[in-house]
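My current task is to audit a protein record that another person submitted. What it holds is a sequence and that sequence's fold in token form. Thanks in advance; the entry in question is below.
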Amino acid sequence: MKEKFQLEYVFSNISMSVLWNSISTPSGLGEWFADKVDLDPNDPNVFVFYWGKTCQTARLLNNRTGSYVKFRWDDDMDDEAKPYFELRMSDAELTNDVVLTITDFVEEDEREEATKLWETQVAALKMAAGL
């Protein structure tokens, strides 16, 4: 059974609107999360992620503009735990930094690998944002 975990990353010198675009739009996600991201032409709530010749689809479950996006991979739709991944932005008021909190679900023995993958992805996000 998959378990929930969270990771937090602090971004200095980035505007909320730039980070929001990077985590919520196909073009933004295509700059760091996958090689390419499209919307399903038949359902604008389904994002199609491409890594090389592999593709995977995820349904946008919920979002609040300027705050968070929440997805569920289509191959997790029947999982009883209802796993999802969420990208949530918040202000660190004292420092004016932006905090990105990632919530994900993984099998217990895959947590270290998933953490490393997210760290790699966030490094790519920072690079794409010019940080």
